Amino acid sequence: MTRLGLCLGAVLCAGAATAAPVQWTVASGGNDHWYEAVSANSIDWTSARAAAQASGGYLATITSAAENAFIAALVPDYATTGESPYWLGGFQPVGSAANVGWQWVTGEAWSYTNWAPGEPNNSTEHALAFAYFGGGDTWNNAPTGYTGYGAFAGYVVEYVPEPASLILVGLGLAGLGWSRRSRA
């Protein structure tokens, strides 16, 4: 079983509903990363971040309008309810001045934003989610410990593809063969 498969199994066993990860291919304008929307009732941002890391990924980071649209399309019920406050990988360090200092969990540049009108709206909400109030694919800031999203809650995991195992095995065998020839 692949690492991704084991991770998905761990998420399912933890009581979260998950859809199969979907790759945003370079051919379609993407980055070849895989994304997974995980439904998890009443989960807070801190727990979502830990679950994403435990699955071998991280909370999704969004660096362009195209990536935002791709990820938003994966979130269940968004088209019908307009309410899917899935946690994303953006956060503001505690103690930051109101509405400044936002960053991604990966350390990527915070260069693209898609805040809902009036957001971010205060200095006590340090976590990023898709807006829960029918804001399309826009963003909302919320407290990291907030679990009030209820039945529509979840998070989006981003996975960076690893080099194919066969390539690594092949390189290892080639190196072993070269090492044996060098000793002869």
Second CATH tier, the architecture: Roll
Structural class: alpha+beta
Rg (C-alpha, Å): 19 Å
Biggest sheet descriptor: 9 strands, mixed
Q: How confident is the prediction overall: mean pLDDT?
A: 80
The CATH superfamily label reads Mannose-Binding Protein A, subunit A
Strands, count: 9
Unreliable runs: 1-15
State which percent range the strand residues make up: 15-25%
Specify the number of helices.
5
Distance between the amino and carboxyl termini: 38 Å
What's the order of the H and E elements? HEEEHEHHEEEEEH
Explain the overall architecture.
With 184 residues, this protein is α+β, with helices and mostly antiparallel strands. It has a single domain (3-183), classed as Mannose-Binding Protein A, Chain A (Roll), CATH 3.10.100. Helices cover 29% and strands 18% of the residues. The protein contains five helices and nine strands. The chain has helices spanning 3-13, 45-54, 65-74, 78-81, 165-183, and strands at residues 17-18, 22-23, 34-39, 58-59, 86-91, 103-104, 127-130, 139-142, 154-159. The model is unreliable at 1-15 (pLDDT under 50).
